[in-house]
């Protein structure tokens, strides 16, 4: 039987079974059509969700935490996994439909362009076609650029929404106890015995605190301390200086009371005033070692008015306020700031005597806690030996400047309780007034700025833009691919191995003829065995083709046509030899 006769017989068999095959094709793919429609709907829905996530991220920008925001964030974190899958499905289908449409175009299509379009089914494949086929470089660059949107859109999805903080500033007023404006308990000698116990307790408690606590920016009651100003510096009046709370000493070991602005869990910057006081012309006497040697220190008057800016962060686990920066204000302070301390000599004498005894019992052969503190001892209550004050200014002795700084701290710590025998104020200051407006405490007020800091969702607008743009481009590819599908008339033969059997004289024609799509042809020829061989073994130059292989195991030589009767095709062939030339 000649080759033409075999082909004619195959065509006749296909025509005889055309009616039956048509019925089978209409009945059998119904479920596949439904599945295809469902998958298309899912892809459209997912694409819509991508755009909605971007829009919702913008809507959640600067919003506090919520259950709905958490759901949006959880979905956004899945986008890097889902986006490349959906992109590959949509873009791959578009390029395949574009290749099929070009193949049916009246003017045809160049094989190079067809290979470049149809072969670009992934990012790697598009780069491979651009690099090796090089049929149409601009077209290849465009295809590769479109495929590059897949990882870009996926990464954008995970970055559109994140956690952050949002701050809102509000103005208000705070109140604080100004130490120079409070009524001194030493104005009347009868007051001293009444309050001496409280004074001694506050002074000794501050002095006995640990070395680490003495260096903190707050006292034992979490009240902010005011740092000392180093008088050796020549500051610019009105210029703010930042405070390093790790390397400073404080005006007093007792802090000041700051109250008034309701902060909750917010942040506020407030300004407060504080006086650094060193008593004018007072003398401090100390018994040193040996016993015949004593210490006598003469201190000159100096009043420094500091404006200190504080940052308050109320929290159950952290102190309220910390000094952040300061400046010198009113350098020529009037002496009335010190009148409350040095106004009456007799009261001053009594106060200094009380200072000597405020730290507790003094042993004759031991340094008093105040002496020990002035000599830079970290633990003043350690029962140290008497201080040898002759070592002052020696290379390995006691620094006079350090004594001056510690005396400032000690004296202010002792004087402060005379001015402040309370550690807190009423929560509502407006309700603290009495029938007599002249009764203490007298409060100063200052402006404050409360910064309300909340944990919120923040949208990255740049990544939201990238996500929306890439999704819109993907939507466009989906619409174009869907439109091209209705413009295609022929079967889908691109990309299927079963298409190699179409119009092949060495394989039988499947039921349904040449009009079958690739998937339908594959199902028709599902059991047919094929082989790549040389079908002209006796010629000088061979010819490579795919042939049908007899299924010896089942004893069937007519595979691949389902239940159709296909004539057996006998082909002279040989396996592909090495070194042979082929047409």
UniProtKB/TrEMBL annotation:
<keyword id="KW-0472">Membrane</keyword>
<feature type="transmembrane region" description="Helical">
    <location>
        <begin position="45"/>
        <end position="63"/>
    </location>
</feature>
<keyword id="KW-0812">Transmembrane</keyword>
<feature type="transmembrane region" description="Helical">
    <location>
        <begin position="75"/>
        <end position="95"/>
    </location>
</feature>
<keyword id="KW-1133">Transmembrane helix</keyword>
<feature type="transmembrane region" description="Helical">
    <location>
        <begin position="131"/>
        <end position="149"/>
    </location>
</feature>
<feature type="transmembrane region" description="Helical">
    <location>
        <begin position="462"/>
        <end position="484"/>
    </location>
</feature>
<protein>
    <submittedName>
        <fullName>Uncharacterized protein</fullName>
    </submittedName>
</protein>
